[in-house]
Structure formats: C-alpha cells, structure tokens
Amino acid sequence: MTAERIVEMPEGVTAEMKGTCLCISGPKGNLERDMHYPKIAIAIRDNNFVVSTESTRKRIVAMVGTYAAHARNMCRGVAEGYNYKMKVVYSHFPIQLKQSGDKLEIVNFLGEKESRFASVPDGVTLKLGNDEITVSGINKEAVGMTAARIEHATKVGNRDTRVFQDGVYIIEKA
C-alpha cells in the first residue's frame, strides 16, 4: 500500500527541490523549508507537489500528510499571504502599543509600571491601529507564532480573569 498526497500549485507559483529543501516562490515572496524524512519521496510533477511513501507505518504515513500540508500552506502564503486581526481590550487602564525594531512593546497593561514585550520575527509585519493590530506575512507559522506571543504577553496573572478581561486577543484569521 502506498500513501500519496498531491498538492496543486496556484497560478504564478513555482517550486523546486534543492536537495531536501523545498523552495517556493510567488508574487508575495519566497519560502524555503527542509523536507527530509526517511522513506518519504518528494517530487514536483506537472505543476503539482507530490509526497509519497511505500511504507505502511502510521508515523511515516502521517508525515506524508504533514509535508503536504506544509507545501499547501507555503503555496498559499506566497500567493495570497496570511493576516491575523487582533483586538486590544481594556476596561481599567488604557493599553498602549509601540513597535520598536523586532519587538512589540505593551505599555500600561493593567497599570503595571514595567512594559511587556512580544518578539516579532523577520518577514512578519504589524499594523497598529487604535484598538486593533494586524499581523501579516507569507509564512503561516511565523504569523501565527507572532499573534500567539502577543496574546501570551498580555496574559492576566494573579487576578480574577472574570473581572480583569484586559488583553490582546485574536479575533480573525484570514
């Protein structure tokens, strides 16, 4: 029995394998990812990305699906990009956001004197509005991780979360 997954590449997206590294380029940019795993064959045929294995082991068959999902996300990223919208919620103290280099500084969260920080990796851009943040980029993992770091940086501790609902929360993934 063979497990095989085929990912169709959208218009304007090209892919090539450089050894075990998958390089995908499109109108929004380029992404690279190491796609090495034992007993898994990866090929590009007729503008399709094909991941297959001859093995029947669950772990290897699962990795076939995982690599196909990574390739699908990379294709969508270089073609359309990813955007996460986040809402700044406060009821007690107004939260101020400042972007400085590769960090987002969260000032006056719950009236704290110390600022809180969330790191922003390369390739991810932030748009700061009054009470909204837009996190965007072509790498789905980096965009999602940045949104999670911002959410985690504003986690309320040692207080009743039913009363103190302040924070920055993901409201939309597009």
Summarize the structure.
The protein is an alpha+beta fold. Helix content is 21%, strand content 41%. It is built from two helices and 13 strands; from the N terminus they run E-E-E-E-E-E-H-E-E-E-E-E-E-H-E.
Question: Which term fits the overall shape?
Answer: elongated
The ordered H/E elements are EEEEEEHEEEEEEHE
Going by CATH, the architecture of the largest domain would be Alpha-Beta Complex
- The percentage helix is 10-25%
Characterize the main sheet.
4 strands, antiparallel
Structural class: alpha+beta
Strand content: 35-45%
Placed side by side, the strands forming the largest sheet appear as 11-12-7-13
Number of helices: 2
The radius of gyration is: 20 Å
- How far the N terminus sits from the C terminus, by CA atoms, comes to 37 Å
What do you see in this structure?
This protein is an alpha+beta fold. The protein has two domains: 3-79, Outer Surface Protein A, domain 3; 82-173, Outer Surface Protein A, domain 3. Helix content is 21%, strand content 41%. The protein has two helices and 13 strands. The protein has helices at residues 58-79, 140-153, and strands spanning 3-8, 14-18, 21-25, 30-34, 41-45, 48-53, 82-89, 96-100, 103-107, 116-119, 124-128, 132-137, 167-173. The strands form four sheets. Strands 11-12-7-13 form a four-stranded antiparallel β-sheet, covered by helices on one side. A three-stranded antiparallel β-sheet has the order 1-6-5, with helices on one face. The longest helix has 22 residues, at 58-79. The chain is elongated and about 60 Å long.
